[in-house]
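Chapter summary example.
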Amino acid sequence: QVQLVESGGGLVQAGGSQRLSCTASGGTFSGSVMGWFRQAPGKVRELIASISWNGDSTFYADSVKGRFTISRDNARNTVYLQMNSLKPLDTAVYYCAVRPRDYLKYDYWGQGTQVTVSS
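The structure predicted for these 119 residues follows.
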């Protein structure tokens, strides 16, 4: 059974940095795309960053472009999200997800980790 476990959330001041990690287990992730989503209170969950299997293709939502960096370590089945210059608007529950090879949607999800940015 595939499991994704996120870590690294918490409280941070505006302008600060935080790094989220997500480790996947229980499956084969070769060729997968890994992504980070977030959901703020009262808003829909949105994709904010994704990375291809070999890291040569990344996507960032406009809201985080230039501030957040996604990376992955395939040997550890882990994806990271480095978040810099955090703003109160970045406050949300952050989820990692895996889109397996040849799948059209993200099929596996973590439980989410809260990130709160204070002003």
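To summarize the output: The chain is about 0% helix and 50% strand.
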